[in-house]
Design a protein that fits this description.
Blueprint: H1 24-45, H2 53-78, H3 86-104, H4 106-130, H5 135-157, E1 177-178, H6 183-190, H7 197-208, E2 211-212, H8 213-231, H9 233-243, H10 245-250, H11 255-281, H12 292-302, H13 307-326, H14 328-351, H15 355-374, H16 380-383, H17 386-398
Helix pairs in contact: 1-14, 2-7, 2-8, 2-11, 2-12, 2-13, 3-4, 3-5, 3-11, 3-12, 4-5, 4-11, 6-7, 8-9, 12-13, 12-17, 13-14, 13-17, 14-15
């Protein structure tokens, strides 16, 4: 039997159940409502940084490495391999980008960083797919080895060059950007601080002013991944390896091959995310990833192993990261915004029967409101924790109807169904 015509059944191949996903009109209504709430909080608190073009641009830049890491996790876990080593693969990508990027340009660095990430994925694939090592142990090992290896290579390679050192590389050039002609008009409207109108101008201005070509590449990668995994026979076979590998095997699918491809692509995407981070910072620095690989995993879970929702989660985490980088005064209005979001989460969880979670969400919302009323700014010591606090709250309170691939994390052996 030819494997090219093999058809695999599974939850993702079955007809879609009505109501299992939000329809486009509901998604548009939700996005519009969220935007109006954000505008109202900005107008009430005077926190203009909430919707400023600078914040949006910074949030978009911060979301790219997180989103690419999460997308790498999506490829791997859809094939049944948990890749907790994304952080280490991102580190390999940052160093690889610096190694070629400072001398041969950002795009050469981007390519080499992606290749080093793919090499990390290959190591993870050999350990988990071929030798059956526990996926978590293999990922943790990569996360331990990669920073030490990158630091050693930095001391050996960069310390003798101008701008380099024992913990950093020489400067990396820019990858290029585009600015649309009407961006100046948008900034003029933004400065008026009109309700909703200026907020919309700020959001659009952040998206069309000095938009990095790396960001455009990341958007294309997300779209391409969605199309490949859900619209092609290759993607169906790959996802079948994460749902029912032994059933896929019985239909002629080479499960080992697809797992290898998925994990190598996963590492390449994480390496690309790390390279994008190095280009945004214009150099490699020790500890540069700052846990973004793990936040990418959080975005993956928040997105329920779907590319579109994953991108939305990365955008959320990138936005909070950008807010905390602006100033502590910019974080203060975020307390009120968080309280409103938690109140909505509480209503939703109550209606779905999750009463305990709803009560917890209400309590945290009340505490956030009291904190906002009682203070004028968030202490500087707590500002840097904003992205991580949001990550914990989102995963603990909002992501309750998750459906991971059925065979995710299981060791597969041909002909040995358990």
């Amino acid at each position: 039997m030819s494997t090219a015509t093999a058809t695999v059944t599974g939850p993702d191949a079955a007809p879609r159940r009505r109501g299992s996903r939000l329809s486009p009109p509901l998604l548009i209504a939700f996005a519009l409502g969220a935007f109006l709430v954000l505008s109202a909080v900005r107008a009430f608190t005077g926190g203009n940084d909430l919707t400023s073009s600078g914040t949006i641009a910074a949030g978009l830049s911060a979301a790219v490495p997180i989103g690419l890491a999460g997308l790498g996790g999506l490829w791997s876990e859809r094939a049944g391999v948990v890749n907790i080593g994304l952080e280490g693969m991102m580190i390999l990508g940052t160093w690889g980008c610096a190694y070629l990027g400072w001398d041969h340009g950002a795009w050469a660095g981007l390519l080499f960083g992606t290749l080093l990430g793919a090499l990390g994925g290959l190591v993870h694939a050999v350990a988990t797919v071929t030798f059956g090592v526990d996926h978590i142990i293999s990922g943790v090992a990569i996360n331990i080895i990669a920073p030490g290896l990158a630091l050693y290579l930095t001391k050996v390679t960069f310390v003798h060059y101008p701008g380099g050192g024992q913990k950093q590389s020489p400067p990396i050039g820019d990858a290029g950007s585009i600015t649309l002609p009407f961006s100046d008009w948008l900034h003029t409207v933004e400065d008026k601080h009109w309700f909703a109108v200026s907020d919309l101008a700020g959001v659009l201005g952040g998206l069309v002013t000095r938009l990095s070509l790396v960001t455009l590449l990341a958007a294309l990668v997300v779209l391409a991944s969605a199309w490949i995994l859900w619209r092609t026979a290759f993607g169906l076979r790959l996802r079948s390896c994460g749902e029912a590998p032994h059933a896929a095997e019985s239909l002629g699918v080479n499960v080992y091959k697809y797992k290898y491809i998925a994990v190598i692509v996963s590492g390449a995407l994480a390496g690309l995310g790390g390279a994008a981070l190095a280009i945004a910072a214009h150099q490699f620095r020790d500890g540069q990833t700052g846990g973004r690989g793990f936040i990418g995993l959080a975005a993956l879970i928040f997105g329920n192993w779907r590319p579109g929702a994953l991108a939305a989660g990365a955008g959320l985490f990138g936005y909070t990261d950008a807010i905390q980088l602006r100033s502590s005064s910019a974080v203060h209005p975020l307390l009120l915004l968080m309280a409103i979001a938690l109140a909505l989460v509480a209503i939703w969880q109550w209606r779905t029967g999750q009463r305990a979670i709803a009560v917890v969400a209400v309590v945290i919302a009340v505490l956030a409101v009291l904190w906002y009323i009682d203070t004028d700014r968030v202490p500087d010591e707590l500002v840097g924790t904003t992205p991580y606090v949001v990550t914990i709250l989102v995963l603990a309170l909002a992501s309750q109807r998750l459906r991971m691939p059925k065979a995710d994390g299981r060791v597969y052996r041909r002909g040995e169904e358990t």
